[in-house]
Amino acid sequence: MKKAILKLYIYFLFFTIVLISACKDKQLEQEVVTTIQLKLTDAAGVAKTFSWEKKDPNGTAAPIVDTIKMVANKVYTGELTLLNAAVSPISDLTQEIRDKKADHLFVFKPSAANVSIKITDLDANLKPVGLATTWTVQSASNGSINILLKHLPDKTATNPETTGATDIDAIFPIKIQ
Amino acid sequence: MVRNGIMSCLLLFGYLPVSAQTAVAQDCNHTLTGVIMDNENHPMPFANVYVVELQRGTVADEKGRFTLENLCNKSYTFTLTHIECQHKTQGLVIDGDMETLFVLQHRPQLLQSVVVTGAKRVLESIQIRSELSATELLSGGTANLGEMLKQINGVTALNTGATISKPMIRGLTGDRVLVIQNGIRQESQAWGMDHAPEIDPLSAGKMAVVKGANGVKYGSGAMGGVILVEPNPLRDSMGMNGFVFLSGQSNGRGGSIAGMLEGKLHENWSWRVQTSAQKSGYLNTPTYFLQNSGVEGWNGALTLRHKGRIITSEFFYNHFYTKIGILKGSHFGNIEDLERAIAAARPANADSTQFAYAIQKPAQMVSHDLAKLNWSFPTQNIGKMNIALSGQYNLRQEFDAHRLFGSVSKDFNQADAGFELPTVALKADWEHRTIRNYQGSMGVESSFQRNRAFAGNLIPDYRSYKLGAFWTERYKKKPQPLEVEAGIRYDFQQTQVDNTKQIEYPTLNFHNISTSVGGIYHVLDNLKVTANLSTAWRAPNVNELYSKGVHHGTASYELGNPNLKSEKALNADFNLEYVSQRVQFQVNIFRNLVSNYIYVEPDTHFNAQLQRRGIVVTIRGVFPKFDYQQTDATLTGIDASLNWKVVNHVSCKLKYSTLYAKNVKQNEYLPLMPPTKVENEWRYEETGVQQGKKVQKWHSAIHFIKVFEQERLPLSIADFKAAPEGYVRIDASAGAECRLFGKVTEVNLTVNNLANTVYRDYLDRFRYFTDATGRNVGIHLKTFL
Questions:
Q1: Which phi and psi angles does B337 have, rounded to 5°?
Q2: What is the predicted ipTM?
Q3: Among all residues of chain A, which has the CA nearest to that of B415?
Q4: Is some CB atom of chain A closer than 8 A to the CB atom of B420?
Q5: Residue B186 vs residue B129, higher pLDDT
Q6: Given this structure, which CATH class describes domain B128-232+243-784?
Q7: CA-based, 20 to 30 A from B674: which of A115, B327, B707, B713?
């Protein structure tokens, strides 16, 4: 009987080893965007960078968001940068969009702020992308801007914003003086 | 060489040198009950059973059932005769009260053999138990487990489209329902809303559902009920038999093929191999195709059994694989995307979708392997010991159609979410034969598992250890009409979550004692009343404790609660059953009180920093936040059924089930609970066709299913879309049994949703986006070899 129990135990060990060793390798994790940086440069070449950042992308804490400050009746060139600041060193994800411009579209939706935004960069099909922009500021006002990044949108649609999946949906406050 | 092979197999299957005496006890008050069937699982009515040694016998009833009383614990010779067959003789050793199945082979060259199987002590169930026969299983064609089990009253399913179906017993599903395959607990990622059990119904001999909490017998998780997937008993007589099954269906233009071959090789060796495969393309609703709704899969099983002088050893291996396409446009970047999809009357690409077979992303790829070694042997002359060692490996990979920035690769090499769960378990139970009217069993069970997410971050990795011990006894004194049963079980579970760089998790220990008490009272010969009170429990799952992040299927942010306690169910059941020649009636009233019921609740806390209530801001926008909470829940309901033989050949079936599921703390209904359902079936059946005719028997049936609108809804949780209206669905079927090329062949034609009704079902999570599937015509052929 003792021998039988020992045998049983050996089977058990054998099973455990077979099962545990059948494990899959850890695969690559998906990239996450933690930070959006908007660099605004005026005609004189003075640049200011505003950021929207949430370092723990799955956490419940609120993001840290800069207020975009602009001067009335001026024109700025805008440049967007996307970062993953949750890893060290910080990785720049903007290149991923530059590599697949046709698959991406930034949508800029100002609210209450007297500013209009025009996309200046184009993809291979001559459709807008949105990494490069021109911001035309009118009279002084306070409001906000909603920046969306659409993945695989239908850029020919009347309202491309309603097509594709939303990868970024962030709001910056705006102060125009 | 062969002999050597057999010897090493013997060693492998654990031919343990345990010695036991087979002394014969001289009490002669045992009862043998049984069923006589042919090899196609049809009962053989009015067959004669004769015990040679006792020179007495009995006649089976119209369902092939018989009872022989006052048998001693010894070997008897049984002679079986049936009007359609020559008489057959078979020996059987009586070992206490037993239930047996005598199978008469149909094939001419096998006419001499009788298979005696399942010589197992089976007591009348005190729990509410319903079964699906092999015929019902096979007529389902390519239907998955959840769809198949919907045939049982009180069983529904939580669906994610038509292809992912989680069985729900009286409103409880997932981790609150156990699946037992061939005696082993299926260990998988049951917590996910779209994680269906990894069981191929085509591989099962029969399936049964035990309703209500049953923690004593089955351990943690058996809160709503237990699904038993059981193989047919192996062959006990020399020879070989099998079947081939072919099935095709119009919706999805799919088909399945299955085959089984079994036999007895040698004096002591029995074997069975079984395989099935299926493939189906895009399904269609009455008006459009569902993009990427294809399914494919296969299942293979092998059983080997060695019957030694004392020890019976059995080896079982089952491999399950499935790949399921998920409707395009059902995963969402953010809440606005979700709201847009819900607001649309049909999926965005419905009109342009053409039929296709190829499965693209999003998709799931799941496999499950189960190996089991089982030894059973008599212990002196007072009982029987059963030891089972099992190993399982569950592998779940989920693929998104969407990857941040990069385009999605077409291949399925790298999952976006992947989990693996190996489990090893050892259990031993001992049944003792009737001692002074007491009959019972006791046992211990232990298991170890390691859950690892090798892709994605949905849940942390963990290890879990379980240990349990139980004891049940049944008191039955003939001819008293009352039988009583009571049982107790202790469970211990330890969960160790792997620490990460940011978080150090505590080791969690859970203890629980489950009990049950119940009885059967035979009021009359054909009227019995069953009542029971039983408990069950489960420890909170890791996703409920620690999940943190956005669920892209529901576009909601879910936050786990590390302080959750174990859920405990206290279930009361009352069942009345009347069976006569013409009428079968059953009514079952139940109330399941689940304390510490875990559910997600919208967050109502005011976030001062965000100046908003119940939301989380992420870079993908604002998501509603849900927290895991506990409440007490009551699930109260009635399942009733009537089977009435109206006239010869014509029968009428009526089923009714209703459920009130309440959240006691909030004093409102619980969401996602099955609405009231009424079913009615009319069936014409011809069995007495003259011998020699090509068609032996045939039937046709029409089945109406009325599902009411779910009006028992929570008020505090706003649903994305109002509960759909009630609907009536009509199904029809016709079948015949005939001889083709000298083989017995069953042909079945089934039509689901005959009227091509457009409807949406409350328990289908895809009701937000699409209609349910349209008419489906299936043809199923089964030929016995």
A1: -60, -45
A2: 0.81
A3: A27
A4: yes
A5: B186
A6: mainly beta
A7: B327
